[in-house]
Amino acid sequence: MELSNLQHRLIERLRDGLPLGKHPYADIANDLGTTEGTVIETLEQLIAHKVINRFGMIIRHRALGYQANAMCVFDIGDDAAPDIGKAMAALPYVTLCYRRERVAGVWPYNLYCMIHGRDRLTVRAQIRHLIARLELHDAPHKVLFSKQCFTQRAGKYGAPRASVSLPAPTETRAIPDEVREIS
Amino acid sequence: MSTELTRLQTRLIEHFQRGFPTTPRPFETIASELGTNEDTVISAISDLKDKGYLDRIGATYATGRAGASSLAAMEVPDDQLEKIAAQVSHFTEINHNYEREDKLNLWFVVTAADQASLETAIKAIETKTGLPVYRMPMIEHYRLDLGFALKWN
Questions:
Q1: Among A161, A167, B76, B150, which residue has the fewest nearby CB atoms (within 10 Å)?
Q2: Nearest to A26 among B24, B66, B94 (CB)
């Protein structure tokens, strides 16, 4: 869907999060030079058209104790990948699942899923369950646990920029110590 | 588990990671749903933010609908990892940047308003770091929503 100028600007404004005052949409309207009603309507359009797939509290999962974060990658035939991907996505402990392009000569894997857990033992057991349940014993795969989180912030969607500029250091948000713990 | 959340904060996280109210006074809407008052909700949320548990109240976007994005990875020599990771994180187009256990040890997501800006950003990262950036753009998603259930022991 083609986004309107106002939709772009709202997306850009939402990168900083909803202001924590009593009338947050009115505050945003003020910033964007429009009305509260227009901001709410525009936001609801983005949600209804599924441009926004989730609107709410975006938590720092590592700070909240989800330290065992595994990216599991599989090399699955392109024909079979969609069905296996859908079955994988339905498993309760899978938080994200998608098919991606391979990198020739470097990275043969095309089906990805994420499992976020509190400890590695549990996550490893869930991965074994996933492989057994979907009969993926013979599919080449890898499990990449995360070690350090250097950055977690909002995507830079919104109005296109003429060029990429290196930001001033202040624009890079510091990650709280608890988020940077080795998982 | 060192996380100390109040009962209200736990309920906020359980219920409002999605479907956040778009009413003119959303914190009052939440308060009436949870049987408390607006000021209490606002201060509970501010406290979550101050303590680093909440990044923001905001949106996540369906890939390809709001702009362009790609997962990307680099093979970085161990003794340069901190330096290169900082260089990569410096770009505002980076929204996640993790060290992972593999030969490809630095993984990040690059987001931009459109495909051209995305390409420009990736090339700029390669120039800045002097290392190739491998791209793994999404073909199809089966599960995108990242909300966490709080399961307390």
A1: A167
A2: B24
Q: Quote the domain boundaries for residue B73.
A: 68-136
For residue B81, the domain's CATH number is 3.30.70.3460
Banded pLDDT at B65 (limits 50, 70, 90): low
Residue A82 C-beta-side C-alpha neighbours within 13 Å: 3
CA B131 to chain centre: 25
Q: What percent of chain A has pLDDT over 90?
A: 65
Q: What ipTM was estimated for this complex?
A: 0.76
Mutate to test the interface with A, among B136, B144, B145 (most CBs of A within 10 A): B136
Domains in chain A: ranges and CATH: 5-48 (no CATH), 61-183 (3.30.70.920)
Domain shared by B126 and B96, yes or no: yes
Q: How far apart are CA B62 and CA A51, in angstroms?
A: 5
Token duo for residue B11 = 């309920």
| Mean pLDDT, residues A26-55 | 95
Distance from CA of A52 to the nearest CA of B (A): 4
- B33 and B87 part of one domain: no
Confidence of residue A35 (pLDDT cuts 50, 70, 90): very high
Residue B103 is encoded by which pair of tokens?
């030969």
